[in-house]
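Predicting structure from sequence has reshaped protein science. With that in mind, we have picked out one protein's residues alongside their backbone shape tokens:
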Amino acid sequence: MNLRGIGIWILRVGLAGVYIFAAIPKVIDPWAFARAIHNFRILPLEAIPPLAVWLPPLEALAALAVLTGVLYRGGLVWLTGLSLAFAGGIISAILRKLDIDCGCFGTLARSSATWPHLLLNLATATAGIILIAARARTPRRRRLPR
């Protein structure tokens, strides 16, 4: 494996690891995640319970897709989009001076909606963008018809 391959592998494992680590406690306790979503005061109340129930398993599945390579591109796009959406929520909370736990890691770790947490979201989005670009530049092997 060359240096580029090692770098891509590290980004894949890192991005997938962050999202798996984040998804597990939210899957276990979706109502705590629902309260965290509510604290942002962005979404209508009716949207919060389904989002709290369905988003964590989708996070985990997308992370597993990136980790295993099965549905890799879809997993990358999903995680990158989530990272950007979460960054938007953090920016909104910072600008409105909300002192809240963002709920990104469920009840496993307190993660406030602050500048350092925004940087984490931007870092995961950047990793996703780099991996998408790296995939686009990788030549694909075509199988010859038999």
Notes: The chain has one domain: 3-137. Helices lie at 3-28, 30-39, 48-68, 72-95, 115-137. The two ends are 30 Å apart (CA to CA).
